[in-house]
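Dear colleagues,

For the upcoming journal club I promised to circulate an example of a predicted protein-ligand complex. I picked one with adenosine-5'-triphosphate because it came up in last month's discussion. The inputs are reproduced below in full, followed by the predicted structure.
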Amino acid sequence: MDTTYVQTIWQVMDELHNADQLEKALSSCLDILRDATGSNQGSIWMLDTQSERVIALIESNTADTIGESAALGEGVAGEVVLTSEARNYNSSEAGRVRLAGADGPVITDESILAVPIRTPQHTLGCMILSGKETGDYTDDDARLCENCCAILALDIDDKGFEFRPFEDRQPVVTVRDVIKEFQNGEEIRQVLKGVNLDVFPGELMVVLGESGCGKSTLLNIIGGMDKMTSGKLLVEGKDMSDPSEDELTRYRREYVGFIFQSYNLMPNLSAYENIEFIGEIADDPMDSGEALKMVGLEDKADHLPSALSGGQMQRVSIARALVKKPKIILADEPTAALDYDTSVKVLSVIEEIVREQKTTVLMVTHNPEIAKMANRVIKLRDGKISSARVNLHPHKAADLVW
Ligand SMILES: Nc1ncnc2c1ncn2[C@@H]1O[C@H](COP(=O)(O)OP(=O)(O)OP(=O)(O)O)[C@@H](O)[C@H]1O
Ligand SMILES: [Mg+2]
């Protein structure tokens, strides 16, 4: 045993002694081991036992790993957590392995060392280091990291640190194995090919994906505006996969609010009347004037849509969605027709609704910058969810740039 080995262990223990927060404990341990092994970069992935996904929580000198996630067994992170065994890839193997899922980050031309963070009873996550300056990782590196991560795991257990990406784990909406086919003459086209998704209360979830990948289709199914071909939709545990007309009407009227790219306002009604009109059919609506105030348009109540700018029209349509006090707001490309400044204004309103009203928002966009303000980002590709990531520190809408 050389002195570096012992020193590193002491350093880790010292840092852990001072850490009063899970993120701090992980972060200091990662930095120490990155230094000790001469690694270029590193990340720590934790297992969320509810969703059974391994989620990147901490990174050191890595770009864009945070919030990436992998199912158990998927990618290096998922595999190490599943098997609880370290993996050591030399630099010629590394280009072929992914850290997480199919869309996840790849490390090319650099050696990778991944070790579990485990107690004797269970595996909590894993640490991944890469780019050792002097070539491949040695058995000594692996042993050092494994031992330090074991100390870390015991410390996490001891202090009762918990990793919970969401406070309330009872989903508002659950989508299971949803398939959607469209028939075009003779031809049947599968647009959604088995989508699984949980949306949690009070989260802002962004769905990203290229044009035509099925984003709007998914949103419409969740909003009860389109029927799935097969699969399940649960809303607060209630099965809405095949609702009666009555259930559907009530659901659309009271439960969900829609925001579309094209504002869909009634041209002959004023801003106020456009909101009041929806409020009238809801069970326990908000005051229309209050809804207008929330989007900062109280002084435009009498204006017809034609006398409003695009951003103002979109804000009226947000107020219209809000007035029903819906549990969930579904927003389909709400800023696609707006310029940058107006988009940021509209996104700030959405941000505030999530923060102040605790409304759950599911927002579709193809602008990856907007995804930074989300609590969670889902990527849809070719009718399936190809990746999901958690933002523990979402950006403010006002700080987004594109
Ligand atoms: N009613 C329909 N009948 C037949 N095909 C449809 C229908 N609605 C959607 N599709 C097809 O399903 C696919 C997915 O459409 P969808 O509108 O969900 O995509 P999207 O991801 O929202 O795209 P965009 O970013 O362009 O809005 C497309 O190929 C589209 O042509
Ligand atoms: Mg669409």
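Two points we might discuss: The CA atoms of residues 266 and 274 lie 6 Å apart. The first strand starts at residue 41 and ends at 48.

See you all on Thursday,
B. R.
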